[in-house]
Specification:
single chain, about 450 residues, mainly alpha, Ferritin, two-stranded parallel ribbon, 19 helices, 2 strands, about 65% helix, globular
Length: about 450
Amino acid sequence: MSEQARHEAIAPVSRPEEREGAARRRAEYRYRFPRDARKLGGKFSVDENARRLLRFFYLERRLSQGLGSWTLAIPEFEVKIETGRHIFGHMDAARRFRERLHEQEKRLGEIDAFRDEGIDLFIEEALSAADAPELLVGIHQVAGRALETAYRHHIDDTDPITDAPTIRAMRQILLDYEPMLSWAGAALAAYIEGGVEESRLESWRWHLAKLLASIGGVTGADAPGPRPAPLRSEARPYRRGEVPVRDCRFATFANTGDYNVADGEPRYPVGSYEDERLRFVRTQRDEVDAIEAFGTFLWDIRFKDFQAEYDLARITWDECRHTEIGHHSLTTLGYDPFELPNRLTGSTCRGPMEPAYAMVEINLFGEVGVIKTIGGLIDEARRREDTLLAHTSDFIRSDERTHVRKGQHIIRIMSDLGIQELEERTRELFTECLVSLGAITPDMDIFKLSREELERFVGE
């Protein structure tokens, strides 16, 4: 007889008078609370639970990184914004799994160091999508659906009492998954209705589903199937885009950072409240370029530090909200948001730049610049009873303060250089870029924008 069988065969020592007393006290108890119908028992040991959760953690982390790498290359405005939200959704799921694994006595360093070649192969292939519709197919219809199903099965199969924290974590993750997958399905339907060939997307979905099956699925517990061939990522290793793209609804400009110059003539007297108000709202709409910046940073520093990745993912989501604030504010002010040209200057310069310098520009120049000026704008908006601007900019100010604070840790992860050296080199690189775009003309052989000029010129 096995040790478990011997243990389960031990008869209880129950005394009749004690059992009768318990029954009597229970009958006399006045309250009839809902009965706990859960039962002890589940398919997974702690070790097997941890093995699966570690794969889930890694998949979620990689999905977030991968979506970040595509933010520059997605043209469609709505898809770019939604992708920024999903970047955080997946990274927040990774955080929940990381915390649960740590509760089950795995060291954080061990969790963060986990790698899986099969998962890496799948992610690289999914990122080798030909366009944004194919990207959505791989990330959502293949990986996302498979993870959603795995989480629901895990909730059903694990012990509902001993492993209740895992169940809670998965249910919270699924709260994000439901709208993500629903949106992706509707977005793909829109692509197909707009002329994208459905058979191409279905072929890509089938290819990636076979590849996922070949690594044992998202749990790694399935019998591996045959690997499809050929793989795009083996023929040509994946590289993120460097050039910001917009859909055909946008008119764009990169040869200046000044909206009045780009517009041909000012819409309001330069320096007036009306001028500054419109500039601020347009800047928020154009923080679509900040989605691109922080998304690509997440990819560029992948695996260096989990907290930095998490903060970048969260900031990316914040920038999605800022973009939406600007877009909706323009509509509320009476504009068609697409009638106002979109500034590409920042993303055009940052796209190919080393992440540390690009991060310094957007964090220490762009966001710090906003903090320096936004207080006065809010005060003036309140004085004029401009409730729209006062309301939205108040929330934006609190976000920017948080971003600057979190940015200090991210910059330290990105580079060993001191802040002063990083600032100096960033000013040089951005000046060179702006000269190459024709946005500014140097007055001397050695020319470098001042901090104040850079804050004003490409302030986010």
